[in-house]
From TrEMBL, chain A:
The keyword Lyase does not apply. InterPro entries: DH_E1, PDH_E1_Alpha_Subunit, Pyrv_DH_E1_asu_subgrp-y, THDP-binding. Tetramer of 2 alpha and 2 beta subunits. This is Pyruvate dehydrogenase E1 component subunit alpha. The keyword Coiled coil applies. GO terms for biological process: pyruvate decarboxylation to acetyl-CoA. CDD domains: TPP_E1_PDC_ADC_BCADC. GO terms for molecular function: pyruvate dehydrogenase (acetyl-transferring) activity. Keywords: Coiled coil, Oxidoreductase, Pyruvate, Thiamine pyrophosphate. NCBIfam families: PDH_E1_alph_y (TIGR03182). It comes from the Eukaryota.
UniProtKB/TrEMBL annotation, chain B:
SMART domains: Transket_pyr. Residues 84-259 form the Transketolase-like pyrimidine-binding domain. Tetramer of 2 alpha and 2 beta subunits. This is pyruvate dehydrogenase (acetyl-transferring). Its main location: plastid. GO terms for molecular function: metal ion binding; pyruvate dehydrogenase (acetyl-transferring) activity. It is found in: Plastid, Chloroplast.
Amino acid sequence: MACSATAQIIQPLSINSARSVDNSDACAKILNPSSFLVSTPRINKKLFSVNKSISPFARRSATVFAVSSDVVKEKKLKSNSSLSNLLITKEEGLELYEDMYLGRAFEDMCAQMYYRGKMFGFVHLYNGQEAVSTGFIKLLKKEDCVVSTYRDHVHSLSKGVPAREVMGELFGKTTGCCRGQGGSMHMFSKEHNVLGGFAFIGEGIPVATGAAFTSKYKREVLKEDCDEVTLAFFGDGTCNNGQFFECLNMAALWKLPIVFVVENNLWAIGMSHLRATSDPQIWKKGPAFGMPGVHVDGMDVLKVREVAKEAIGRARRGEGPTLVECETYRFRGHSLADPDELRDPAEKAHYATRDPITALKKYMAENKLAAEAELKVIEKKIDELVEDAVEFADKSPVPARSQLLENVFADPRGFGIGPDGKYRCEDPKFTQGTAHV
Amino acid sequence: MAAVTRGLGATAALSSANSKKFQFTTRRSLSGRKGSFFAVESNGNPRSSLNRHNNRTRQLVTNAVATKPDSAAASTVSKPGHELLLFEALREGLEEEMDRDPHVCVMGEDVGHYGGSYKVTKGFADKYGDLRVLDTPIAENSFTGMAIGAAMTGLRPVVEGMNMGFLLLAFNQISNNCGMLHYTSGGQFKIPVVIRGPGGVGRQLGAEHSQRLESYFQSIPGIQMVACSTPYNAKGLMKAAIRSDNPVILFEHVLLYNLKERIPDEEYVLNLEEAEMVRPGEHVTILTYSRMRYHVMQAAKTLVNKGYDPEVIDIRSLKPFDLYTIGNSVKKTHRVIIVEECMRTGGIGASLTASINENFHDYLDAPIVCLSSQDVPTPYAASLEEWTVVQPAQIVAAVEQLCQ
């Protein structure tokens, strides 16, 4: 298994050389992604293959293969660039471009607004990781669910939540998708099935598992026609957390229709993934639980999309979960409060050359899918959309005091019975938000 | 047949101006009407119409003190209802709700094939299948989170903690997600989960299996907590908790699972936010819940013989407190003793003391006495364990001192 020790671009701290002479599986240097990992030298036609076990109580044996981006690369190389061999059509290309550009433009605007004092608190931007969100979420139906972390603006946008609502939420206005009550880290949308937005890492993974469970329940108990899939997005730091492993186990055990998408951007605030993880190859943790583990170049939206198609397809067909590790990078700090002094500038420069938006643009130009002018039209449209979102959010009203006590309980009788015998929520001060509960 | 949930008015609409009819003078009489359903009011305040209906309700409750069944008093009357143990009552309630709504499911360790560590779900796996009665791996935080995700997407899970203490591992999900997601999502997602399990001090189970988590969870905004103490209220509260759209934590007690009582055949659902009048009285208000109710009733017998007339209220709703029932009682007796199994520090009693002081200070003739368990990890030795919880003798002594 190749684990080249060439140009040491990604070493913020020197790793003691003892590690590199360890068995190659423990190789900790993540360098050129295409020389990454292939667990078997032969690459099967199907990207994944899992032996189906006959009875739920039989010992599960899964022959799983990890696939590197080489597979997709090979596919591309074989093509002679004729349109029919391309990975995407023109419409799809434009859709992907628009979505990624929206993500980037929106996040850049967020940074501006933050420094102008329009939003506060912890804001975590997604710049650089757009390929993962777009690559996966654009393949979903409206009924499919997405669960994210605090870095959730772009996941929400990709899933279809209007930019106005996300910006409104960030500004803390009533027109926000969560009425201003959630904020940057808690984006929810019932209409678009975005189940959050969680501040603690790992917290969303069980929720995603639950949503996938509901899908299976609807199919098998309620006998409804349901092939809804859930995607859980989380980072490299989360992959050392118990909830991650517990959910991998349950999802594989019950063959839940879920895809675990790891956005490995190598850094958990200031903690390098290599310093925090005994075996940094996260995709390997999938087969340990009986599901395929895949590693993919997360800076290339087309590669992500190919892997996503297969993983989502698997889940829809009822074949169970998949763990997809996307190697990606965030161009900005962990949050807008992070000075981002720890990361090597050379590392940042390296990944800047692999900007997913530029890469897609280049692909579309080379394959004559879209002219420069067409892309400019999209960019202009998105810029206007984001400006409009800011204006909308700016003009929206702040929540009135009466909103304070609403939504604490779905059934407000939960506030109990007051000394006068009436339910607390019937107290007129309750609706004014001034009641003492 | 549908049951009527006792709420303010009979509908969920909260704009009713008739809220004062909390005293519930409009209850239907039960006489001879088998097969009908009725809403149950737990307030058996004797000041209101002392109709036969009231007496029946009161009898139903006080006879749960000891395990001996309803004897002489009801022998002349036809005995509707059926006798069962508390865990069977829980099972009955759960089964009725699962039959009624296919979205109700159970998740927990050993709830399926094993039938539940306290047999509350015995027979369910055969009846409902492995997916509806889900045997989970030992991963409380994750399967509680899974229940929350399932609840957000349309199911109504009942999560069983094999022992309430294990739910400490699920604290992250209970606090952050259960309590908060309805709010942080701006009201978009509701979390109709029920989290239940046995807790409390048992018989020499050791410190970690004898925990009382009500004090830890009480500050979490967005959840409700109830504690059952009799087969009658166990079934009623179980059903109410499942039907509620709020996340509800139902505290059961390890030592009460084998209590026997006769409960109605008709379907009934109790009110999650109400307290239960166990024994009306004049001299002192004793507020209690769960197992301590029985220590209190035992002490009450002694006190009655000594000439005292304690009013005993099982608060049932640990969060929020039923300040109406409690307040009425305080206004009548002017003396309050709280008897609980929770720890002294920061327990339910502590909150209740603060709440009563805040709201009814003028009506008190003496400071509130709060009898709680010692702030001690429950020892294994039986003699020591006995002294960590409140015993009837202590309750008698406290009443005597308070009523001097």
